[in-house]
Amino acid sequence: MKLTFLGTAAAEGWPALFCECEGCKQALKNGGKDIRHRCAYVIDNDTMVDFGPDTYAQCLSYGIDTANIRRLLITHSHTDHFTPKELDWRSRGYSKVEHDLDLYANQHALDKLPAVLFKPLDQLQPWRLIPHLVKPGDCIEDGDIRFTAILADHAGPEQLPLNYIIERNGSTIFIGNDSGWWCEESWNILSRFKLDIAVIECTYGVRFKEHTVKHMGADCTVAARDEMQKRGILKQDAIVVATHFSHNCQDLHADFEAFFNPKGITVAYDGLVLEK
Questions:
Q1: Most buried one in 52, 82, 156, 258, CB count within 10 A?
Q2: pLDDT confidence of 157, banded at 50, 70, 90?
Q3: Is the domain covering 2-275 a CATH 3.40.50.300 domain?
Q4: Which residues face 234 on adjacent strands?
Q5: What is the pTM of this model?
Q6: Checking DSSP bridges between strand 145-151 and strand 162-168, what pairing results, if any?
């Protein structure tokens, strides 16, 4: 599978809108890998994980043809990860759309659709949009791709936020942004898999490296990797990647690399492509 990182920032982006902090000023000055859009991914040019406010610009920047996207996997309902108004442009009169788009999400995310499209979930044919409810523990097959959802530690348990284990053609990728330390049930599900790529979040960075709840700091990211190794979840040549960085931690890309590279963890940046 090919995994493209469309964005690697937390909710505000980096540099953040309107922000005057030193981290944002320096990122704007440095450019390059210090410019981060909101977190999202593309797998093999036909599957997107999360669909936030930067999607249009991201796809243009990295050569992603959205006409090829066949499914969206949404982790949770927060606007930086799901901006459903952008789906309105699939409707007749705006675009010529010749195939359906399967949307997989928890109930909180699905409940946002009627509010912006002004139609109930069972009347989305004008958008060629097919919504699917996903709950933690669900394993879903869609063509040649299979994905399993686990419960993330984020956004409150009543929302049932999700992380995804994605399998295709003998490869397995874990997308684990927007979560603190996973509950034992989630760890047990993860333990059934052998990962080629593990994407682990690091919102609080090195500055707040001990953070473990709702989001992770850098020490927690490393501890999650270590727990995966202990449980036999990672293949011997697995790639472990840190992502979803907040400007509030003030760590720039070079700071993240100085911390993570000696520990064998790759630091994500916008446009990074990995293949396994």
A1: 82
A2: confident
A3: no
A4: 195
A5: 0.97
A6: antiparallel
